[in-house]
Every structure is written in C-alpha cells, then in structure tokens.
Amino acid sequence: MDQGKILAIDDEPNIRHLIQNEFSLEGFKVTTAGSGEEGLKLFEDQPFDVVLLDIRLPRMNGIEVLRRLKKKDPGPEVIMITAYGDIQTAVDSLKLGARDYLTKPFKLDELLSIVKKAVQDLREKSLSKPEGTGERPAESLPIVICPSPAMKKVYDLISRVAKTNHTVLLQGETGVGKDVLAYRIHQQSLRQDGPFVTVDCGLLSHNLAESELYGHRKGAFSGATEAKLGLVEKSHTGTLFLDEIGNIDMELQKKFLRFLETRSFRRIGEVKEQTIDTRIILATNLDLQEAIRKGDLRSDLFYRMTEFVIPIPPLRERPEDIPLLTQFFLSPYVKDGRKMDISKEALAVLTDYPWPGNIRELKAVIGKAALLADSSIRTEDFPAQVRARHYQSSHQPKTLEDMEKEHIMNVLAETEGNQTRASEVLGINRKTLYKKIKTYKIFS
Ligand SMILES: Nc1ncnc2c1ncn2[C@@H]1O[C@H](COP(=O)(O)OP(=O)(O)OP(=O)(O)O)[C@@H](O)[C@H]1O
Ligand SMILES: [Mg+2]
C-alpha cells in the first residue's frame, strides 16, 4: 500500500525513529535526514509528497531549508515542527509555503491525520497547475466576499479600477489576500480572457531574473541553448501580477521602470525592443517608503508604482469577516456524513485573536482543528496561542497567581509567542518567564 512518500528532517534521532516506525506501519514510505543539508540532498534526488521539517536545526535552520525546498520544487507539502514559543517563525513559514505547523510535543495521531490530508489534497490537486510563478489555470478560485465595511471599500476600489489600464499596487500584511484580490481584478477587467501571469519577485533567481522576466535569444549567454519567452511576454493581452515587488533586485529596477512606463523591453541578446499590451498589478507587504530610505528601492520607481494604491486591512481590523471565512474554510470537512460546524464559544475565540498571519493563518488553524475535532469544533481544538487571549476575557481572575498567569498569556499573545519580547514587556528576564510558563503549563 503506497500512502505517500515522506521525508522527515529532524536532528533528534528519537523523533526520526518514531516517525519512521509509525508512518511505515501506516503504509507510508519514509526517508529520514538528521540535518537540513542532508534533507535537501535527498529532496533533490527523489520525489516526495510530504516533508516534515523541524524548525530548530543545527547550522541551517528549518526556515532556510524550507526556502530552498520550495525554490527547488514548490509541489510537495511541507509541515513544520516547532518548539513552543516559536509561533512567529511558524507563522512566517506559512508565508514561505509551508502547509501547516505542529508544536512539540505533538500527538502522533494529529501528525498522522495532517499528513494524510496533505497527501489526499496533493493527489486531488495534481491535475491542475501549481500556483506560484507562471500562468494561472483559467478557472476561477472560489473565495469569500468579505462582508466588513473595510473590505466593501476595497471591492469598490477594485471594481472601479479593474476596467482601466492603471497600474495597481495592493498593499497589506502577509496573508490578507493580495493574491486573491489581484486575480479578482483580472477577472473583472476587459482582459479576463487573456493570461494571468504571476511573478514572485522574491523568488526570481538573482542571475537569471532578467532572462526569466524578459526572455532571451538562443545563445545569448552560455547555457542559453534554446530561445526563451519571458514571463512579461507571456502576459500579452492579459495581466502581469508582480508579487513581493519590494524584493525586486536593485539592478533590475531601472529596466523595470522603463518597462512600467512604456511596456517596452528587450529580450537578452536581441537589439530590437518589443512592446506588449499588458496590465500590471503589484503587491507588497513591506513599507516601501522605508525601502527607499534604506536604499533598497529607487524613488522614481516608487512614484510610478504607486499610481493607484489599494491598502488591504489586516484581519484584526475587520473581525466581522471571521465567521464567514471560518464557515468557508470548514466547508470541505465532513465527519460521519455530516458537514462540520463550530461552537459559538470557539467562534468567539477566533474573533478575539489578533491573527498576525491573517487569513492564511486562520485557514491553517481551521484546517488543523477540523482534523482534531469530532463533528463540531471546540475551543480545545485550537493551538495555545489562539486560546490564550480568550482565556483572559472569559474568566474572572480569582487569585494573584491566576492574574499573573492570565497576564503572561495575554502578553505572549500580543508578542505572538516571542518570549524575548514578552519578557521585556513583563519586566522579567527570559529564564524567569520560561519557568513561569512551565509552572503555569501555558503551552501544554
Ligand atoms: N477572501 C478570501 N476567501 C477565501 N480564501 C482567502 C480569501 N483571501 C485570502 N484567502 C486565502 O488565504 C491565503 C492567503 O491569501 P493570499 O495568498 O492572497 O495572501 P497575500 O496577501 O498574498 O499574502 P503574502 O503577502 O504572504 O503573499 C490563501 O490560501 C488564500 O486562498
Ligand atoms: Mg501573496
């Protein structure tokens, strides 16, 4: 029985053995690696469905390993294993393309169901094209139209600008839905039948960026054995979505400015300029003014890019959207032939939490809770950092110790689990905070 191929990267031999034994018994083919370097090598040599990746690894940490894995092949699902207190890193890993994260010590059953669901989704997805840099499949992705007044304003702006050819900049924190909204602009535009091409500027490899964007002639440089059409040209008559635009290489910026202004560019190795017809949408989660100050962004490019800016509010500023999004993310899950639902109290917990990873984090939390829960999601099915805040608002403190515990939990939620920052806020040293976390069993 081939349930799927798993690569487990962890420096603790016990965890490697545990995963090897348990997953083999369930019919998975398991390969293990004790370091990031070893894992990357294996990943290069053979195909895997799921990678289980420890965040704290010696030398090359899990986040760096994740970045490299995704660059090599964004297909396999990656599940991060984190120590408690690493919540911010775990949230960052979702942005880098990890599917989910689990906090140590984890329950094997939980890991098993997350992996099974990942393999199942992967198999269902295998017929459609992967997301990322390249052309999007033509069918539209189902999404929620958020009911909050703040998002109504965003949709209004989008429908007003969609029919024009203005360059649009979508600006907002990670996970607020910029990709989703960029595609919506394309769908509402007169170019909806043309291609929608996504370029992740953060993933453009430094040396090949120009050729990936503008293409090259055969023999233009050593290694250019075939002529190549650039992504820019592939978007002709459609929309070019330049994601993470704040990460565009300084060297590329001047040529990019010219392209933005004139839609003209030159394939590498060719003398003649090409001009194409494309609509440009940009997205960033950075403060671009700050990037200018730091010398990472040309100010002339900045002015050209900010012709029409649409700020996307973070989820914590529009909690009204959470119930509908939650229902939407729950809708694929069925238990005992019935659609899953969520208790009133659990929903209240979700609306209370500040969601540093925004909609992406909400989606991951719901997905994990749906695997753990029976037929209705309850507060206990959420990770500690999501529960922590609510504890404070729903229980009347009785003793000094209760109050201390609640205050610590609250500060940890505010600092997104960062213990160093939390200890600064609390005015105690890290060791003391660590002891208190253990005494009060805050993360268990
Ligand atoms: N309105 C929505 N309805 C359903 N799912 C959504 C909606 N908005 C966002 N999502 C989901 O949330 C996740 C994050 O969205 P998206 O990738 O668009 O965020 P982003 O702002 O581009 O983040 P980043 O800055 O990290 O690239 C995706 O899985 C997306 O499908
Ligand atoms: Mg994005």
Gyration radius from CA atoms, angstroms: 23 Å
What is the helix fraction of residues, given as a range? 40-55%
What general outline do the C-alpha atoms trace? globular
The averaged pLDDT comes out at 87
Give the strand tally: 19
Taking strands numbered 1, 2, ... along the chain, how are they ordered across the largest sheet? Answer: 6-8-11-14-7-15
Topology:
Elements: E1 5-9, H1 13-25, E2 29-33, H2 36-45, E3 50-54, H3 62-72, E4 77-82, H4 87-95, E5 100-103, H5 108-125, E6 134-135, H6 149-162, E7 168-171, H7 178-188, E8 196-200, H8 209-214, E9 215-216, E10 228-229, H9 231-234, E11 239-243, H10 250-262, E12 264-265, E13 274-275, E14 279-284, H11 288-293, H12 299-305, E15 308-311, H13 322-330, E16 334-335, E17 338-339, E18 341-342, H14 344-352, H15 358-372, E19 376-377, H16 384-394, H17 400-414, H18 419-426, H19 430-439
Parallel strand pairs: 1-2, 1-3, 3-4, 4-5, 7-14, 7-15, 8-11, 11-14, 18-19
Antiparallel strand pairs: 6-8, 9-10, 12-13, 16-17
Helix pairs in contact: 2-3, 6-7, 10-12, 13-15, 14-16, 16-17, 17-18, 18-19
Bound molecules: adenosine-5'-triphosphate (ATP) and magnesium ion.
Describe the 3D structure.
The protein is built from 19 helices and 19 strands. It is of the alpha/beta class and 444 residues long. It has three domains: 5-125, Response regulator (Rossmann fold); 134-311, P-loop containing nucleotide triphosphate hydrolases (Rossmann fold); 333-439, Helicase, Ruva Protein, domain 3 (Orthogonal Bundle), CATH 1.10.8. A six-stranded mixed β-sheet has the order 6-8-11-14-7-15. Strands 2-1-3-4-5 form a five-stranded parallel β-sheet, sandwiched between helices. A hairpin with a 2-residue loop joins strand 16 and strand 17 (338-339). Helix 6 (149-162) crosses helix 7 (178-188) and helix 13 packs across helix 15. Bound molecules: adenosine-5'-triphosphate and magnesium ion. Magnesium ion is lined by residues 178-179, 243, 283.
